[in-house]
Amino acid sequence: MDQSHDYRFTIDAYTPETIPLARLAEYMKDLAALLGERKHVHFVRLESGSTSLLQRVDPEAAPKIKKRIDALNPSNGTGPDDALRAFRALDRLLAEDNAVGRLCDYDGAVIIRFPGREKPRPLTFGAFSQPGSLDGVLIKIGGKDDTVPVHLQDGKEIHICTTTREMARRLAPHLFGATLRVQGHGRWERDAEGVWRLDRFYIDDFETLDDAPLGAVVERLRRVAGSDWAKVDDPYAELQHLRHGSGGAH
Question: What is the pLDDT of residues 22-70, one digit of tens each?
């Protein structure tokens, strides 16, 4: 069997006898995401000493995986987005287990190091609240308390908010309807990765956003005097860029 297609992932905090099965499954899931080509990567065995997971790659997929790994540079954030996410997930597991890890090729050369417990902790800041707004489709509302839970879906993200009973009554007719923009106050916290995340959001007011088809919206924009939208080849991509990034047509 060609060992040149083997990869070994080592965790220094456990042995095969001590690692919990559920934790092992978490590592294996994220390791599969890191390597990619899921149909062509096969778990072979756990090896003794520190916990080492041996994977074998089908020959036809080996060049793609090598190219993927070679392109990954977590220190400066370059490489395939899903591979970077998988690296961070593995490194987070290692830090939680007070471990460090490494991915090696068949001859033992370290390809990727996972700092885990040795990663410097980010500067911490206390949680803070500030006014803001969220967009989403109302998918859930209701509760027994005076403070009513409200769930808004924005793509794959679910915003869990609260509001008064009076505001909940105003929101209720829009359940599973048009996209809403809610205004209020949010509380933000920074996680271990240094990313700010919304902890909770209190809704003070809302408005219904235009749910006209994209084509109709673009046509309106193109008719605006002085607009550059007539020159935009991919209006949907441009709208997404304007929403989540900076720049764009004016």
Answer: 999 999 999 999 999 989 999 999 987 788 999 999 999 999 999 999 9
- The total number of residues written for the chain in this structure: 250
CATH class of 128-208: mainly beta
Sequence ranges of the domains in the chain: 3-118, 128-208, 214-244
Render pLDDT for 99-151 as a digit per residue (tens, 0 to 9): 999 999 888 899 999 999 888 766 556 677 889 999 999 999 987 778 899 99
| Cα-Cα-Cα-Cα dihedral sign, residues 7, 13, 14, 15 | positive
For residue 25, give Cα distances in angstroms to 8, 28, 52, 97, 131: 16, 5, 13, 14, 41
Q: How far apart are CA 41 and CA 7, in angstroms?
A: 10
CB atoms within 10 A of CB 19: 18
C-alpha triplet 11, 14, 17: angle, nearest 5°? 130
Cβ atoms within 10 A of the Cβ of 165, count?
A: 11
CATH of domain 3-118: 3.30.70
Provide the token pair at 20. Answer: 């919990």
Say which amino acid occupies 177: G
Alpha carbons 34 and 211: distance in angstroms, whole number:
38
